[in-house]
Amino acid sequence: MTWRCTGIRWSGGRPAVGWIADGRGERTSPLRYGAALAFAARGERRCLGVRRAGKRTPCPAGAAVPAAAGNAQCPECARLDRSFSVAADTNAGDPRPYRVYLAWFGPGLAKVGITAEERGAARLLEQGAVAWAWLGRGPLMAGRRAEELLRTALGVPDRIPYARKRAVRSRLPAAGDRAHAVAALHAEAAALEGWPQSLERLPCEVVDHAAVFGLDGLPDPARVVTAMAPGGAVAGRLAAAAGPDLHFSDGLVLDTRLLAGWELVPAGGRSTDVPAVAVPSESGARQDGLF
C-alpha cells in the first residue's frame, strides 16, 4: 500500500502533512516546530485526482505529474476540479454563506478575498496570512461583488506571489503595528459606498497568526526548493510553517505543494540534495509564479 503526500494541511489551527492511499482514505502527520525532519521521494510523482465536497476521487489514469509543477494533478483532473471551483467562478450557484476577509502578509502586502463560512479561518492559514480580519458575510455572489469593489477601492491585488510573502516573514513589524495596519484598512473598507445590500458588515476583530506559524526568530530565507526528484532528500530542523511553506532553521524553504503526489520515505542521516535556488534579499521579493 502506497501512501502519497497531499501537502500541508491546517487542522485545528496547526500544521500537518497530509497523506492518501487508494482504498485506505486519508490521514495526517502533525508537524512540530524545532523537530528534525528528513525524508526522500521514492518512485514517480502521481496525480492525486479530484477533491470535491471533502472527498477525493482517484485519477483514473494514475497519471504522472512533472516534478516542478505547483499542482499535483494531471490536466484532466485539474479541469474537472476547476469545473466546480468558486475561485474559478464555475460554481456561482453555491448556496452556502460566504465571508469576505482582509488578509495582511507584511508591510504593503494585503489582499481581499472570500471563503465559505463553514471553513472558518482555514483559508487564511492556507494562504499564510500573518494578520487578518473579517469584513462581511452573505451569499456567494454578494461576497464576490464586495470583493471586487474593495480590491479596486483599496488598491490591493487579487493575489500575492509566495516569493513576496516569504521575503518579509522574518522581518515583520511588532504585533501592535500589524493589528493597526489591518484595522486601518478595515476602517477604510467599511467607509466605502456601494457594498451589496445582502452582505452583512462585520466589526473589526484582528487575528494574528505569527505564533501559530512559529515566526518568532525566523531566519531569513536563503534557499528555496524548486522541485523534488526520485531519491532526492530534504533534511533539517523545522523552524516554522506558513501557508504551504516549511521554513527550516538553516534558511531552507520548501513549498509543500511540491511534495504532493510523491511517496515519501525516511531519510535519516542524509542531507538536503534536491534542486534549490538562492533567495537574493531584493529580487526574491519581486518574483512571480510559484516561487
- Strand element count: 17
Q: What strand line-up does the widest sheet have?
A: 16-4-13-14-15-12-17
Q: Could you report the average pLDDT, rounded to the nearest whole number?
A: 91
Please give the count of helices.
6
Please indicate the percent range of residues in DSSP E strands (runs of 2 or more). Answer: 25-35%
Q: Taking Cα atoms only, what radius of gyration do you get, to the nearest Å?
A: 19 Å
SSE class:
alpha+beta
Q: How far apart are the first and last residues' alpha carbons, in Å?
A: 33 Å
Q: What kind of sheet is the major sheet?
A: 7 strands, mixed
Which residues form runs of ≥5 with pLDDT under 50? 282-291
Secondary-structure element string: EEEEEEHEEHEHHHEEHEEEEEE
Query: Looking at the structure, what is the overall shape?
Result: globular
Assign a percent range to the helix content: 10-25%
Describe this structure in words.
There is one protein chain. The chain has helices spanning 75-82, 122-127, 140-154, 162-169, 175-190, 210-213, and strands spanning 4-11, 14-21, 25-30, 36-42, 50-52, 55-57, 98-106, 109-116, 131-138, 200-201, 207-208, 223-225, 233-242, 245-248, 252-255, 263-266, 276-278. Residues 282-291 have low confidence and may be disordered. It contains six helices and 17 strands. With 291 residues, the protein is α+β, with helices and mostly antiparallel strands. The strands form four sheets. Strands 16-4-13-14-15-12-17 form a seven-stranded mixed beta sheet. Strands 7, 8, 9, 10 and 11 form a five-stranded antiparallel beta sheet that branches. A three-stranded antiparallel beta sheet has the order 1-2-3.
